[in-house]
Amino acid sequence: MSLEPALRRQLVALLGADWVRDDQVTRFSYRCDGLTLHPSLPAGVVFPGDHDQVVGVVKLLHAAGVSFLPRGAGTGLSGGAVPTTGAVIIELVRLNRIGPVNEIDRTIEVGPGVVNIQVSHAARAHGLYFVPDPSSQKACSVGGNVAENSGGPHTLKYGVTVNHILALDVVLPDGSAHRVGGESWASPGADLLALLIGSEGTLCIVTNIICRLTPLPPAVQTLLAVFNDVQQACEAVSAIIRAGIVPAALEMIDNTVIRAIEQTISAGFPTDAEAVLIIELEDIEAGITDELAAVRRILGQVGTHEIRVAEDEAARARIWRARKEAFGAIGALSPSFYTQDGVIPRGALPRVLARVNQIGRDHGLTIANVFHAGDGNLHPLILYDAHDPDQVAATHEVGRRILELCLAEGGTLSGEHGIGLEKNSLMDRVYSSTTLDHMAEVRAVFNPNARLNPGKMLPEPGKCGDIKSVAALRAKSGIQV
Amino acid sequence: MSLEPALRRQLVALLGADWVRDDQVTRFSYRCDGLTLHPSLPAGVVFPGDHDQVVGVVKLLHAAGVSFLPRGAGTGLSGGAVPTTGAVIIELVRLNRIGPVNEIDRTIEVGPGVVNIQVSHAARAHGLYFVPDPSSQKACSVGGNVAENSGGPHTLKYGVTVNHILALDVVLPDGSAHRVGGESWASPGADLLALLIGSEGTLCIVTNIICRLTPLPPAVQTLLAVFNDVQQACEAVSAIIRAGIVPAALEMIDNTVIRAIEQTISAGFPTDAEAVLIIELEDIEAGITDELAAVRRILGQVGTHEIRVAEDEAARARIWRARKEAFGAIGALSPSFYTQDGVIPRGALPRVLARVNQIGRDHGLTIANVFHAGDGNLHPLILYDAHDPDQVAATHEVGRRILELCLAEGGTLSGEHGIGLEKNSLMDRVYSSTTLDHMAEVRAVFNPNARLNPGKMLPEPGKCGDIKSVAALRAKSGIQV
User: What range(s) does the FAD-binding PCMH-type domain occupy (chains A, B) (predicted)?
Assistant: First the structure.
């Protein structure tokens, strides 16, 4: 079903005909995000041009009783931006204003449609940058980063997106608009800002973002540590952390991924290495020499095969390009792959990584690893052939077993890709039914009919936990709203 | 009214007679916290010894329909731990277990009754520490830090308490117990952990805390920069930030506070200085030399009168002792003082500080300033005589005008002292009624009858905009502090 005619007319009157699409090509195109091509067709896609138009669109959809969801660049990996049948997608790409940099308060105001890396580009002349740097940073939107509370290699030292946002302008599912947070770092009272960040489009639609910027480090050193043994690489991670060093990034890439990278972009990584670590140190010029010496000493102690230090910015860029394009490179090895995202306590890394690869072998599948080792945030890529039903089934089983392993080690379901519709049925594995009730009740405060991005993040009613309506919540509390 | 006899018997059966107190001395003693001596008398005070006893106590109080509130060390400055009439205080001082340090995951598990500084003492042998360091850190409890989302001088670089907590065990007002957060840094789904931290005892009672620890810096340099002009000191703050330097701490102390410090603990601060900045740099040994040189250059450019670098740990400790005991030292200057806590965007510091002092002069009162300059977190201390009703009224007015000024500059009501019952009637000045409804509804998810710590943080129904000052509370109670 495309858009209902009366609603369509209202949307066209508000946005203009160019910005309201419900033709078959558009609807079929918008079934997917970075995770999946979903079987459900949206009713249509609208492209509001500013905050007021978002408010207008949401009011129309609210009045029409239609489900809807926001969408940024569609790079998400947990299905957060794919529609349920008949939902309207609110595409925020046109909200791409980049405000001036405030040097003293270290802030910048941007629209949700701004591409992540553009924020750092705008800030660079002021000696500042925006820390969250997911692999997709050349494509993903800041609005999507806020929705998913995105991480990236450099969030090891500086924290994930929630640590880099001061305020949001949001539109609730009833079309009301609110500023949450403020220009200063403090927001007394219930921390609604932290609640909205990472809510995966289930609580609000973001129309404006005040980002915190961070000073560019005066000096950066990027090392590639080459290992003949994956366990040694894991030991190096633990030893660096135990020594009290906080690298800006500490990434691991295993042999399978190294070979894929070399087949595609030829970064000069040694294809016979069992693993490499990318270790980035940030400091002022004099300090970095000592820190580099300390890391070299540790790497020597654990038996690192070779240490390469990037001698200039071009060499450094080459290393990071390899890391950030590693996912794409896997296409050279396998017709399909599935990216798992699990978190474990850092100390469990050596035994978990060995087990992950064993799980793959148990099911006849290769697992490639490229991940944020310093954070204990695994990204096992399960290589399979989507045309082979047995391999598809095995991939599901391997993904499930890896998550089970993470949970058994005291970890959790996702580090940065989110829950979306990929893992919402697993939420009862990490949270009690009461905690899930609390989350659903909190959602009901902002999104009482779950008409905004239904079926995402939280388990669906009857699937696990018992979702209470806002009416029940209000009855329980006796508060009148 | 002391405890109702049947409830008292149940509590004694659970905790033992020693740990259930409702004699007059105890009840009168527990009317106060660091802000005020409240006129309301609690029904009694109970001292559970562990998590299970907290659960048992809360279940009994819930069944009896009695209001109750948790209490740590009672050092809070916004009245969060003072009782309403007839409420039962659950004193958590006995939950003071300190678990072992996990070096790889950099964590430690502590009870809410553990004194803040003990956490860093326990971690020190492992080269780690607990970042939040309020001035009261030798007395305040970690549970209180969690409740108030406490800051401190060193949170400029590393963030406030919410950035240093991985998980909480909590008891909800119905006596149910939950783990919120986890041993790894990621918690997908609604961020209930961030919501509970800083909720000022209005959402849950914390019984166990997993803290994140941070590596001790290899080298620390602490400078005292002496200024003949407060505006120059403000300019120095801006210039340091603008240069992309992130000091571990950046604190300002004005002449009034300097004189108070010298009268009491003789830290060797120059009593003729208009202001001093305490600037602490953390880095590795070689790095700190460069950073120190950069700060010296900036201080020279803005016209700093004198720069003193702490030559050893004793000199450094003397500077910090002066800073942390500054509030107490004010007692040498004035029979009473009221500590305001407001936040402004950092860029507004020079003009706001001048206005703050002018507001004091307008009302014939001295204002002393000792505050987190790098964070834009003001702590104007209004000196007055509690025996003089005119001065009490003027203090009330000065405090109100300072907050108005912070709000007009785009700042907010509190940086770290919380809202409590001191500022809850002002919450509608920074938040819309819809946002306050959202906060109340979120509270209702956890604390549906507001029986846990009633009347705190959120405005009471019908009282929004109705200013209840500390001075008025004191006047009403007829008690001099």
Answer: 38-216
